[in-house]
Amino acid sequence: MYARYLYHETGLRKGDIVKKLDEFMQSCYPKYNPTDWNSRIEKYMLKAEKFPLCECNGIWINEKELKTIEEIDNKVLERLAFTLLCLAKFRNFRNPNNNNWVSYSNGEIYNLACINTTAFDKDLKYNQLEELKLIEYAKKINNLNIQVLFIDNESKNKLFISDFRKLGYEWRLYKGEKYVRCANCGILTKNTNGKRRYCKDCANVNKKKMDRIRMQNLRKSRIC
Ligand SMILES: [Zn+2]
């Protein structure tokens, strides 16, 4: 992302961009070794050239796509299919020649889908979606490329997804389960009792803040 920003927004020359990326990595990554990263930085440069920065407010999921997912009739597979659909649509937006492909690591996909399972089970679930003719996949060493086969851009827009952090929960919310967007950071979080306002992280930060204020007030009252 930073490489794309430098390439398209700053007007710097390639050599200067590589220098900036090098400085950036040195400041953020304590174990950074320029020799090891040389070829990767070159690769980011080439990619940056191809893909200008784009702003994506979100993507629309259509009526027919939602129906296809509902017909799977298996909660976990539905979440996985929905996540893959959102990712493929996002990549299509970023690159019109993407042709419904998704290329992320297994871990990333399952994290976004909010599914906790073993490596063996992960592969099994892809196979099940493949048997249903919903995806097709080409396995490469260390990464998994999946093509989503049920994208339908013709039917009516029905669900707008603007937050990609918890796609599995977005699906659950759509299916009527109890979830709420955190009042602070906006992330979807379970709301079983209907009273929750904050996600765990923000609730912890709020609690620390409140504790600090309470301590300060206590100290003040002692001084008075
Ligand atoms: Zn939050």
What do you see in this structure?
By secondary structure, the chain is an alpha+beta fold. The chain has three domains: 2-50, no CATH class; 59-174, Winged helix-like DNA-binding domain superfamily/Winged helix DNA-binding domain (Arc Repressor Mutant, subunit A, Orthogonal Bundle); 179-224, no CATH class. Helix content is 54%, strand content 14%. The protein is built from nine helices and seven strands, in the order αααβααβααβββαββα. It has helices at 2-10, 14-28, 34-50, 63-70, 75-94, 106-112, 119-131, 167-174, 200-223, and strands at 59-62, 101-104, 135-140, 143-148, 157-161, 179-181, 188-190. The protein has a three-stranded antiparallel beta sheet with strand order 2-4-3. A two-stranded antiparallel ribbon has the order 1-5. The chain has a two-stranded antiparallel ribbon with strand order 6-7. A hairpin with a 2-residue loop joins β3 and β4. α1 (2-10) packs antiparallel against α2 (14-28). The longest helix is centred in the last third of the chain and has 24 residues, at 200-223. The protein is globular. It starts with a helix and ends with a helix. The mean pLDDT is 88. Bound molecules: zinc ion. Residues 182, 184-185, 187, 198-199, 201-202 line the site of zinc ion (ZN).
Descriptive terms for the model:
alpha+beta, 9 helices, 7 strands, Arc Repressor Mutant, subunit A, 14% strand, two-stranded antiparallel ribbon, binds zinc ion
**Gyration radius, to the nearest Å?**
22 Å
Distance between the termini: 53 Å
Overall mean pLDDT score?
Answer: 88
Residues in helices, as a percent range: 40-55%
In CATH, what is the class of the largest domain? Mainly Alpha
As for the number of domains, it is 3
Label the overall shape. Answer: globular
**Cofactors, ions and other ligands in the entry:** zinc ion
Q: Unreliable stretches, pLDDT < 50, 5 or more residues?
A: none
Number of helices: 9
Strand arrangement within the widest β-sheet reads: 2-4-3
Secondary-structure content class: alpha+beta
Report strand %: 5-15%
Question: How many distinct beta strands?
Answer: 7
Order of helices and strands: HHHEHHEHHEEEHEEH
State the major sheet.
3 strands, antiparallel
What is the second-level CATH architecture of the largest domain?
Orthogonal Bundle
CATH homologous superfamily designation of the largest domain? Winged helix-like DNA-binding domain superfamily/Winged helix DNA-binding domain
- Write the CATH fold name of the largest domain: Arc Repressor Mutant, subunit A
